[in-house]
Amino acid sequence: MQIKLMAILLLLSTTLHATPVDDLLAEYRSTGVESFSAENGKVLWSQEFTDAKTGKIRQCTTCHTADLRNEGKHARTGKVIKPLAPSANPKRLTKLKKIRKWFKRNCKWTVGRECTAQEKGDILLFIQNFNGEQQ
Ligand code: HEC
To answer: How far is the CA of 29 from the centre of ligand 1 (A)?
Structure first.
């Protein structure tokens, strides 16, 4: 009886401590993705996409820069965007809803479609681990 209770408590506490990134990765895995790669995330981060309407190049770096510890600048509004790397900005990747919302919006704007579960997982790992050595 007691052991069962302990097991339940342990399970509960690990669930409670799962970070939004853990939750999202678990969700992406549940769609059939087997593993994620920060290396591939990095490639996607700098990949150039041509906007169908304007013919202009769009990249994640267009607004966030290549060094995620730096402030970025919004390509359209010119607004400053705080650093995306949690190593420089601890508030990053702490809110599930926020990550979802911006993945959707930014992938559509940059890539021209929503990112796949594989791509989102790869990028999450890349952002989460970013400390400047990836450049
Ligand atoms: C047109 C400008 C722009 C581009 C291009 C862009 N982003 Fe963003 N991104 C933003 C803005 C604006 C925010 C929200 C403001 C903020 O949080 O500072 C944001 C927020 C985010 C967040 C939320 C992080 C958090 O936890 O706070 C993620 C993740 C993200 N972007 C990823 C990407 C990825 C991946 C790409 C490329 C596919 C990309 N962005 C391209 C403007 C851009």
So the answer is: 23
Residue type, 60: C
pLDDT tens across the length of the chain (135 residues): 677 887 877 777 666 678 999 999 999 999 999 999 999 999 999 999 999 999 999 999 999 999 999 999 999 999 999 999 999 999 999 999 999 999 999 999 999 999 999 999 999 999 999 998 876
Tokens describing residue 83: 């650093």
Residue 118 identity: Q
Which residue's CA is minimally distant from atom 41 of ligand 1? Answer: 60
Ligand 1 neighbours (beta carbon < 6 A): 60, 62-64, 74-76, 81-82, 84, 92-93, 95, 98-99, 102-103, 106-107, 109-111, 123
Least Cα distance to 70 among 124, 125, 135 occurs for 135
